[in-house]
């Protein structure tokens, strides 16, 4: 039984994420129907339920992970003391999407028609940042790129753990959608091949970010920035959000394809380059120390 502790922790963490997401959406829908809550109020309920359930359980499970591995860092990767790395993730996502828009504009694929004044969208953006942080970015990254990955890394190689964690990410989304359909709720996402491929790539990108920064706050910042860029720049009409910019695209969906592609593919490429450079530098250090000994 002791040798199976890693599997029990893996199942506990995965079930917590699935249960948290499902109960959060269920509670939000019930509150909306019973009390006639507006959309934002329902989202607040979902965010509070999600973080209120998932975060304490994940932090508790993390203590068992440390005991299992025998390694407890003085400053865990999720510690508030490492919060400055949050900016790294946000700036990287913003830089990548900006680069994508610059390319699209120079090629005439996208024409920016108007930049809207901050008083039209700033308050809504701030509220959505807090909700998205509590409902999606923080609990998901703590659980998936944090606790679940660390359990897998205890048993498997880095790259196999990365792949397995990404598959678990897809499994969480699929399981929640199935549970929602089972109880008569409209699934939050459409489980189709394009969407599965998208979250596979997104999960891979986020885990690679954690690998080279060795910090969960980077992935939280990157995840949150992607959500807000999508909701306030790319497809604000789908979320009822006030747009930061209004633009015309030569083909429908082109802006989303360019922005998502640049953020995810660009994030993967940047991460692989940095990881490769760090590995090369470590090998040089080893070779130098061997030659001196």
**Order of SSEs, N→C?**
HHHEHHHHHEH
Radius of gyration: 20 Å
Number of strands: 2
Largest sheet: 2 strands, antiparallel
Major sheet: arrangement of strands: 1-2
Helical run tally = 9
The portion of residues assigned to helices is over 70%
Q: Layout of helices and strands, plus pairs?
A:
Elements (H helix, E strand, L loop, with lengths): L4 H31 L3 H31 L15 H22 L3 E6 L6 H34 L2 H25 L10 H21 L2 H19 L1 H4 L5 E5 L4 H39 L1
Antiparallel strand pairs: 1-2
Helix pairs in contact: 1-2, 1-4, 1-5, 2-4, 3-7, 3-9, 4-5, 4-7, 5-6, 6-7, 6-9
Description:
This protein has one domain. It contains nine helices and two strands. It has helices at 5-35, 39-69, 85-106, 122-155, 158-182, 193-213, 216-234, 236-239, 254-292; strands at residues 110-115, 245-249. It has a two-stranded antiparallel sheet. It is globular, with a radius of gyration of 20 Å. The model has no long low-confidence stretch (mean pLDDT 91).
Task: Give a brief description.
This protein has 293 residues and is mainly α.
Descriptive tags:
293 residues, 77% helix, 4% strand, mainly alpha, two-stranded antiparallel sheet
């Amino acid at each position: 039984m002791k040798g199976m502790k890693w599997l029990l922790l893996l199942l506990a963490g995965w079930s917590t994420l699935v249960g948290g997401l499902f109960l959060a959406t269920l509670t939000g829908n019930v509150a909306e129907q019973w009390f006639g809550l507006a959309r934002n109020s329902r989202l607040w309920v979902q965010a509070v339920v999600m973080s209120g359930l998932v975060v304490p359980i994940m932090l508790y499970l993390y203590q068992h992970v440390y005991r299992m591995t025998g390694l407890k860092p003085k400053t865990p990767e999720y510690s508030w003391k490492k919060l400055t790395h949050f900016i790294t993730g946000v700036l990287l996502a913003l830089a990548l999407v900006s680069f994508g828009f610059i390319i699209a504009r120079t090629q005439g694929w996208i024409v920016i028609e108007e930049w809207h004044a901050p008083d039209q969208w700033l308050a809504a953006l701030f509220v959505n940042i807090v909700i998205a942080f509590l409902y999606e970015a923080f609990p998901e990254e703590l659980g998936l790129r944090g606790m679940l990955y660390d359990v897998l890394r205890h048993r498997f190689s880095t790259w196999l753990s990365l792949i397995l964690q990404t598959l678990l990410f897809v499994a969480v989304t699929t399981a929640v959608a199935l549970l929602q359909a089972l109880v008569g709720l409209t699934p939050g996402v459409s489980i189709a091949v394009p969407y599965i491929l998208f979250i596979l790539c997104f999960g891979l990108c986020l885990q690679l970010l954690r690998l080279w920064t060795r910090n969960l706050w980077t992935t939280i910042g990157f995840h949150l920035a992607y959500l807000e860029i999508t909701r306030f720049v790319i497809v604000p009409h789908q979320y009822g959000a006030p747009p930061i910019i209004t633009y015309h695209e030569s083909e429908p969906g082109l802006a989303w394809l360019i922005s998502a592609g640049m953020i995810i593919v660009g994030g993967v490429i940047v991460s692989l380059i940095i990881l490769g450079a760090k590995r090369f530098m470590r090998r040089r250090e080893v070779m130098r120390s061997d030659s001196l000994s």
